[in-house]
Protein 1
Amino acid sequence: MARSLPPEALRRTVDPHLLPLRSTEELPPLTGLIGQPRAVAALEFGLDIPDQGFNIYVAGPPGVGRMTGVQMFLEARAKAQPTPPDWCYVYNFQDPSRPRALRLPPGKGRELRRDMQRLVEGIRREIPRVFESDEYNARREAILKEVNQQREEILQRLNQRARAQEMMVEVTPMGIAVIPLLGGRPITDQQFAALPPAMQELLRRRREAFEEEVKQAIKEIRQLERTAQERLRQLNREVALFVVEGLMDDLFEKYRDLPEVLAYLQAVRDDMVENADQFRGREEGQALPFPLPLPAFADLALRKYTVNVLVDNAEQQGAPVIIEWNPTFPNVFGRLEKESLLGVLHTDFTLIRAGALHRANGGYLVLPVEGVLLNPFVWEGLKRALRQRAIEIEEPGERMGLITTRTLDPEPIPLNAKVILIGSPLLYHLLYLYDEEFSELFKVKADFDIEMPWDENGMRDYIALIGTLCRKEGLCHLDARAVARVIEYGGRLAEDQTRLSTRFAEIADLVREATFWARKAGSSIVTAEHVRQALEAKIYRSNLIEERIRQLIAEGTLLIDVEGAKVGQVNGLSVLDLGDYRFGRPNRITATIALGREGVIDIEREARLGGPIHTKGVLILSGYLASKYAQDKPLTLSARLVFEQSYSGVEGDSASCAELCALLSALADVPIRQGIAITGSINQKGELQAIGGVNEKIEGFYYTCKVKGLTGEQGVIIPEANVRNLMLREEVVEAVREGKFHIWAARTVDEAIEILTGVPAGERGPDGKYPEGTINARVDQRLREMAETLQRFGREERPERKEAEARKNEEGSSKGESDRPLQRLPSADPTRRGFPSDLPAEDQQERLSP
């Protein structure tokens, strides 16, 4: 039997006197995730296992605290882990286009950068001073003097040999010229031209013979100059090495335990010694390669000795937890910045910038999967980094082959980080199905539940969550009564008297709004009244459409009866979801019955306004009718069901019980009480199944009855399975307590129809018949009468039909077989053309015959 629910069953309440607090200020802060034991176990497993590919996908709907909860969980875990190393990029003296990556202990990166800055400053100060010293100048002059002396000796010997052959040599900017002598004096071009040809030829041969000796002398001079230059370079190297090693001795000692840094320092030392001139400055009037100010040119030339600290973990305590809210390609993998130099874009290793993967290296990187998939190249780049366990910095255009200009190719940095993607379950399933690499790289799924048990532990966690939120955001703390109201609101969100919602974003918003009303009232603590104000204000901001619908019902524009009784008419309940607000509203459902074989026709489906689930509910309804009433007779009827004044789509099967009751009322010719609404889904056995939005549906009908006048006879029938989901507003519970409104729980259609009509449903007896006067007996009798009437009508009509068909056949045979019209077979769709198998055998043969 259906039962009337007492007020205590309509809402679970929390006794504030049983809560272990006077206000949330007394409680310790929250630690770890609450209400997510499955997700916590998955996170712990994924973070503990070191093998490759065990990255984590956190799945759950928005608002359940996925990002905040994961961040708190990771930060608590990361504190106990070692701090990862620093990473720096330095100049590669062997291949400048491929900067080297250096790994240093935490905090050493900035020290190395500072040490290199001091080294450059010291060398820029000491090198000019040493090269301007008297000792250096004396040694340099000695080398030059010796070279000049040897050069003069070579020229003197050459000149002596030339005079012996009546010639002389002259040193010019173009080289050494050989000039013939005539009478001991150099001959001019005019004098040479005036000589006899024989003399000219003699002088020419003599000069050509001597030019071989000149060439040999020039070779000796050049070799001498090269030797001098080498000696000067060697001198400069010795002087520079003396200065550089003196300044770098402390660095070699400081970084002796870091082989990579030592190798870099040795390369720096060698380059500084080899290119000591770059520290000596330029003399006044000396041309520059391009018109840059001298300080800028010097800084650009010496930039190769800079250390680019890519990741600085000097201030980091434990492993890093990085959340990248905007996962673009540069933000995740780093970038090569560029600067304008004389109108041309220029880059070098000092302009390499870190991405989220670099900062999270050695720790955890959290990414929203929607952003990863929407930003170009990020998903493919992330998979490649996880496969190769290395971070490569490149231009995004290179991935498409659009950049062909020369750029940098920084050395990849080894990747050792756990990547946590946060997204919806739908995206997880899509990636799993359509991306073969996804299951290999993200082997751990952490599902966030939308509910948690409503027990002592659950309430304690809720209280701790509220207290932590108040401390973190500086909100007013809540007293025990206010906490009790917030917990009850959590049960309302979960739509369950045994569960609390984990949509902590909405819980936090309620606490924030309650704090607003408390401060507006001048209170330093949030009370239950402030929570009530926050809830009512939130509803008022969003329920404009709900109030307009109630107004239309009150005015009679939308036809809803809440008094009296009518045949074939019932009040069904639906839920309208506006995104930020849901509310219930009644819908008038009507059924009409007539003779025919079409069966049950869903007008919503015929008008293409009914969704597939709603259509399924109507088909199940038809199956129930056939199973219960068509065992000893054919089910021959034409019934039409419709949602009156419905101008949009109808979806869901929660009205199938209401539709069936309207149909039974029409068949039995028994009126239904209009003050009672019903919701519930049915199966083919006539059992009521649970539906969603039960609280909104009940409240929607209650407020409809309220605007049209409560009579004390009104109420709602719900499935028994939905009793645990009741978390009705206090006003509705109070109306039930005062007897102004009623809520019944039913298990079957028979129980529901008894409440709606006040007539017993009746059970089939051993003789296969229902008790006289019951709903089922009246329906069964009506269906039998309709079948017999339709059968008699068919017999009376059949002779005339046979004669007409015979005449048509004769006419068709005279026209030819090809002109015979095609005969349409009866449809197998029971909602459109009836059930051919339910027709009498003779009638089936008649319809199927040509």
Protein 2
Amino acid sequence: MNLTVAKRFRDITEIHINSLFKIRFEDDGDMDASIDMDTRLRVVPFILKFDKLERVVFGGKNEIDGSSITNFSSADCYFWEGDRGYPNEGPRDSLSAFLDMISGAFSCDALPKHLKMSGLCCPDAEDKAGNRSNNCQTCMRAVKSFPLQSVAEFECRGSSKNQGRSGRRHGLDVCLEKAQLESLIESRVGGSELLRSENRLLRLLGRGRRYTLPSEDGKLLYMVKYSKEELKEIKRVIQYAGLDVKQLSMEAVSNAIVQSFANNNGQIPSREQLYLSELSIKELRDKIDLPIDDLLFDRSLEELKEHIQKFVWVLDRGERGTNEEVSEAELYIHNNIEIDCLEIINRLLANNTTDVQYADLVLIQCLVYNLGRYVGKERRVEASSCLMSILMKGTNEQRKTVIDAKAIPPLIEMLDSSEESLCRSAIASLANIATSGTEEDIKAIVKADTIPKLVKLLEINACVTDSLQILVLAAGSNDTNISLKQPDLLPNLINLIKNKEREEEPNLILNCSILLREFLRTIEPNDVKTVIDLGVFPRLLEIISSIEDESIRTHLEQAMISIASSESCNWADLAGAGFLPILVCLADSKDDDIVKQATSTVGTVTKIKAEYRDMLLSSGIMQPLLQLLKSSSSRRLLKITSLAFSTCCRGEIDFDMSKQALEVFTNKLLGHYYSVDVLSNTCWALFHILEGLSIDEADQIINIGFTQKLLNLLRSSPESVQHAVLKSLHLLTKSGDSYIQLIIESSGMECLSQELTSSNETIQRLSCSTITNLFDYDDDQLQTAMDGNLVTCLNDMLVIDKNKKQALWTIYILTKIGNVGQVKQLVTEGCVSQLCNTLSSDCNTAIQAIWSLKNVSTL
């Protein structure tokens, strides 16, 4: 600093002094600044020689090669003097003394009031040695003595780093609190007006952080972004100054923001090189309500696409990607705009008119890195959204690159996040990979420890669809370690099924039904209890009854049949919860296996309690059962169905259903080619139907033809069938003269007479009773019966206690309506002798015998 030279250039308005600090970088990236003693002593005398000087800018030189340090900020430094650094007081006191020297020069008017000092910082501004206090006399003297316009540009507590890293000048960085700084300024003449002026806000807007984004072609892009602290300060200043932002000029505000793009010399790059962070625009315009010229700052996607590699460069630094030619300073400096670059890339990828050809290995690796738990929520959301776009719109090769870059593990880890946006973004990407990927991709996602996470996400509305999709794929996996038996799965599925507001969502009901089926495939008592407690049966009945999608219906039917077939199910609880109507739907299924199980269950349930049978009847069980009897050719199914139908016929059945059933019996089932079980069940069903008919109703069905079918079965059927047939025939003989006449005309007497010789006491008794009803109607039938070995059978029945009563009654009718010859036949064949033997029986039996003997004696 030659004073003679200074005299020769006294008209100079700006001086850069880069010799005050000598900079060295440590291995850990920290900067140390040695204070040059000679420069510190000679600065003030030197600058006093320049009468027209307007600004002095202090900087540093690289200690190794002497080159000037760009983007230098003394707030970043540890200060050294010789070999002494913190906590030694020497360098701290040395710099403080230098600042006091400048303050003194201003106080005594040695330096002009318009002169501005840039690049200086109180050694305690960053508090790196724990020395900062609120009563730093050096900073307080500077605030009171520096020109007021300079004080207005003071930084506070290390905030000058932002200006230095942006390549712009900055005022003195003091260690005072903001409120204390403002209080000192207000104490000066004109200070209050300065702090509350519109220009103060505009100066703040002109100090946004500027970032330089290089590219291989040498073309630079400059991005400006306001940090959270800066935005908070802008809001505070607006409130402090009582400014009405709506009254601010859009031009003034926009021009102030443009100043943030200026370099150290105040030069502003061309518009094509400027990009104002979209996140900052939203804060300034939408939350702070500042008027901003959109035409000046908005960038179309086509414009942004030209800079895509610059945005990738920001992400691809050091360990984040493959770029290893980036300094530690650059790694740190650009860290704050990674979220902005991700947001831009996401917009480009999501744009329908934009392809994803630039989604190469480097970008994908960067995106996968930003899925990590240590990068912050916003970046993780944007990165996963970018990957989602690549998966949806990219090529198979790009999809493979995403998977090979090991994107699946961090995406799975994100499912545990308490942030819904992270879960939503991660599950969407995983669902895409699983749905469109290979079997190996699915296995990589669907692991045993992933299932509980997916189940938990069913509680988040925005994650339901994708979670269900992956769980369905898990259900179809061959991995034996995968189990859907998660405690929360069944309640979550049922809640989704019950939610009618979601029923229109594509595949939601289908996937829920698939998972419900898989969960209940191996049912446990607690599962049934959960289903009952959540009251889903009415909703399932609604879906099964009305759904057009056969796949959904089948899955739900399989799930419900698992409940019905469970050995642990409590039918009292199921019936009370509304399950029985579902059982009716299951019996009407198009799946043969479900029909068999449902029909078998109907037969079981109706035997448990008459109330359940009546509930099934009121729900319409007869129609699907009858249809099965009518159309099925499966012997096993006919056996099961005929049993269920027969049991149901014990309840109240309307006449139309009874008529349809009798027609099916007559036309199909009452034939010898069916199994004994089917025939027996059918005949019992027929008996119960007839039992429930009135005389008038019975007359309306006489022409159906089942009477002849019954007589045909009586001739050669097993005893189990004959028993049911005889019960029906006996009932018909009480149903009016028309049926008796029909039986007689169909050779019914001969058929019945053959059964009198049966060794089965029940069949013998029923045959006898039916025959009695016939010849009680027509005398001619009596001789037919007697010719059929009737008397011998009656003699045999008199010695059997169970049949004795019926035999005595038949003999009494014979003695009453028979002619002399027929009564003589009774005597001749030993009937009188047997009657006399019964006189020693109980009183009632003896009286019946006496009545018959009396009738014989009167002839």
Protein 3
Amino acid sequence: MRRIIVWAVLAASSLYADTRYMVDYLLPRGGSRGATVEVTFHGVSLEEPREVLFYQAGIRASDFVPLPKPGDGFRVKFQIAPDCPLGEHVLRVRTAAALSDAVTFWVSRFPTVLESETKIGENDTLAKAKPIPLNSTVEGEILPGPDMDRDCYRVEAREGQRISVEVEAARLGTLHYGGELDLAVRILDADGKELGGNDDNPLYVQDPVVSIIAPRTGNYFVEIQQRIFEPPRQGRYRAHIGGFLRPMAIFPAGGPAGTTIDARVFGDPGGLRTERISLPAETGNFEYFAGTDGEKPPSPNILRVSAYPNVLWCGAGPCAAAIPAALNGILEKPGDVHTYRFSARRGEAWKVRVYARTLGAPVDPRIWIRPANAAKNLVEADDSKLQDLGLPSARPNWHIKDQLDPAAVFRAPADGDYLLGIEDATGAGGPDHVYRIEIGPLRDTMYTHITAPDGYQIPRLTGLVVPQGNRWTLDVQLAPGLGTTWQGDVELEAVGLPRGVTMIASRYTKGVTRLPVQFVAAPDAAQQAAPIELLARPVDRKVPLETGSRQGFALTNQPGELPWHFVSLENYALAVTQPAPFSIELEQPLIALAQSGDLLLHAKVTRQGDFKGPVEIQPDWLPPGVSKGPTVTIPAGKDEAAFQIQASPNAAPGIYKVALNASSTGGDAYSGVGRVRVSSQFVELRVTSPYLTIDLQRTSVEGGKQAEITAAVQQKRPFAGKARLILRQLPKGVKMLEPPPEIGAEDKQAAFRIAADGDALPGLYKGISCEIALTDEGENVRMHSGSGTLRVDAPRTAEVAK
């Protein structure tokens, strides 16, 4: 299972702070390779924990012990394999009845040392600094209080030995909201003189890293504190302190799959290093740990592995390149502009993707492409969109550092030579300003994603939780990749569904990007959690279409909702839980939903055992142009209810699959945490043209008198019996006289009698409409039609007015 980790730095909606999550945080925030760690989960609705689902191998959970207060959390042992992948591990908790939001746990190559500070001041000075051995990971906390907490650690080092510090704090995302940790780090000598320090950096943004060479043998001190004081709620951090190498950039930043490259490693205080790197056969991102076994860093540098040959900057452009290719260079001086010359044939389409800030280099790249013999640019690209980067599952206004790297499509207008230029948008440059530009054939791509409208982890809208013997329905969305032009019909393919679980999905026709998808668990399906993929396959299987699954979540680390850390997963998590205490069935509508009309969806709840509580029902998806009323509650002691939906005049005609979702009450109504949720079966909803339309003729009425509004009736569909017509939105002081007109399926006209009070306000009133009520197949149908104009005149004499 693969994952993509990126950083976000913009504000989002205040709704995030109020959203309820099952897992608020877990402690400790990480552990060491080969260790067994007792981890405590804190949150709500965590009764009966059954499983921890990890998105990658290396950790096994066992021995669940609930906390004393039911639902508040539990303790569990994490057995970390000796070869467990280092860094971030995404996980979810499956309880007997639910599947939690995603949270993270971190693995280090070094032994863990606990800070063990119980109050501010215990290790805030050099004299009180906690002694730790080099090559340790400190599990620490910035304590809350009226004064800033400062944590100091003492290490011993030999002259010429490297001392490096890398802090994980913003990346931890200890709380979904309000983990305020923007830390800074300093390395001091025994006299308190600063030898090195860091606050922010291009590699890890808010999480500091620093390396020095010890000038003499003796004691050195590491100081960790907030950059700006703000009393934290859960100020957790992990500080790796040791003699490890901490590269800030590597050049070239990748190479062809299955080859070996000679690379320069930047950022070591000992000077520039050269390493021979063996690249894997698999293309994509490659996590590379530089240095020898005894000096490898706690986290990797990301390199790119592609199918394209490397082209290195030749020193004086334009440098020749034969595409497809990966262009590699360093913008060493401020104002540097590198250019490359390549040939392309008319009609060829190429994807151009820059990797610089994505890989942690301090570059804000900008590119352009133009004919070699012309001055006008055909392509100009600076920043990129999340969807262009293959990250559609996110809040649109979030901005991550990867978006500073442009992505573009180049379509050659003619055979010939072209120039590609790259520069730093801010004019900056330096020895570590590394970039890589991959130019490859453009391929049509379609991603599936499950994303709540606000972009956050909302189990009610994004969770795949199916009780045994029941159903759950949620929206699955499609997002085309950069430059995709194919728009054919798509079918979903589910990969990795547990035995006993099936998927029901409609075909996505041209232009459709969101549809409800239903998952059904057989009564004997095993209770479990499993990673699955939902792939978008063209109905015409001969069409080449790349596809993948995406589900993202942000870990918000500061008030104002600054999602500093964003994780994009390439699998969905599906859980089969214990049987629900109720099920819901939706009655197949006997009639169609008419444009501009209303329809009642009739549902019946079947309760199991001693469950007598109320049940809330609502559809989460409706066809385009169809809206829903408020949530309907089936109270205790009742089993049936109707849910009203309405179609706009422009609702798209067609036949659609719809379902009603139902949940128990209590818990958090918005997120669904603390509730049991099930779905009805799909039924067919037909959206059609209206039975008839009304064209209200323009009319006037004098105050204190009566008048008649005539209407032309256009019959669209046959109906039995009579339709009753009622005027709506009449101005104040004007009323329709009884009885209302009734018409049959053959009538072409109708007339309404109205009366105006003597003090009715004169004026021209637009938007007078007509409500149409009829019965079809025993169902009451209500529609709206017409938009008439009525002029109200003042009474002609005072006597009439009186």
Protein 4
Amino acid sequence: MDKNFQTNLKKYANLAVKIGLNLQPGQKLIMQALKYGGVPIQAAPVIRELAASAYQAGAPLVDVLWRDDDLNLIRFKHAPRDSFEEFPAWQAEGILNVVENGGAMLSISAFDPDLMEGQDPDLLSKQQTAIRKNWKPISNHIGKNTMNWTVLSIPVAGWARKVFPDLPGAEQQPALWDALFKICRVYEDDPTAAWQAHIINLGKRSDYLNQKKYSSLHYTAPGTDLRIGLPEGHIWRSAGFKSQGGIPFTANIPTEEVFTLPDRRLTEGTISSSRPLAYSGNVINNFSLTFKEGEVVDFSAEQGEPVLKNLLDVDPNARLLGEVALVPNSSPISQSGLLFYNTLLDENASSHLALGSAYRFSLEGGEKLSTEEFNALGGNTSLIHEDYMVGSGKLNIDGILPDGTTEPVMRDGEWAIKL
């Protein structure tokens, strides 16, 4: 392995452990990707670096839930067609055991976006629903910031091939690593200091929006005319989080967004996607959603429409919004000029929305509310939380104050807010 690459990989691992998780001495760590069936075994060399960094930070135990994508394909080829609601519940129980006893969680985003192309979308939907039902108790902890957690990407062969199809095979993963190191500030002289400054700058954006207390946002762009209501007491969040135990952490590496929850009942109009959505081993592209009284009532997609339909039909609240996130078109990820086919990265290249559950910490006192109380105030609860990208250099967003006054928030994909 190239010496420079190994040096940068150690920096990347340290960022995940120190800036992402802010792992504390004595905290156990679970590394997982349960929504994808575990961490791919081909990522093992990187996982070892992450484990070394975690142990050096004082973790008494680091554990990993693994997966083999070829085994998953074998299931789709040979398993009984009525067996796709089966799920190894011990995996979710193991993660819960760690997070409910003061541990931290590192989610790994590493998958081939075309892995399940051509597989039966109904079987894929059944498998995803089974996974999400078992994942729900864990996502409840995430929504309440019970523990310190973060999400990190690791290049794997199928993903690198999708992003760099014109490069020779041996050059694809190195190219993806290079892009990842750039957008995660690994090449900075002091990556930790660069991240600390970035977190402060994002915090200034969220502070400004929290002072404004907009009642709604109006989105306009080609194929888009959408108004999103915001609930009273909504909180704009950015990179800096704090667990219920008081541990500061950064939930995504990388992150460029400022976000809050919408009032799930108050979305009206049509919005078009600006980037493909990689979901369940398939790609959904060039799609449009039309909302009425908060709910998706019509949709279309040039690619992956059956997969989009199954996503919307996971449960009744999957057709409602759970997140509104603002990202400037000038973000480092957008300016890379790459389509990553990976939501963690693409959502930080573009303003985006999320179908499904809202994060409780985006509403004043939300962590302490019952599900019924949270929903009554405009929150949303669903098995899914699926981000999709809507931002571009042609997107305009206006903020509407309670008195009806309209102010520019973004113009041509860039912040119109002067700080």
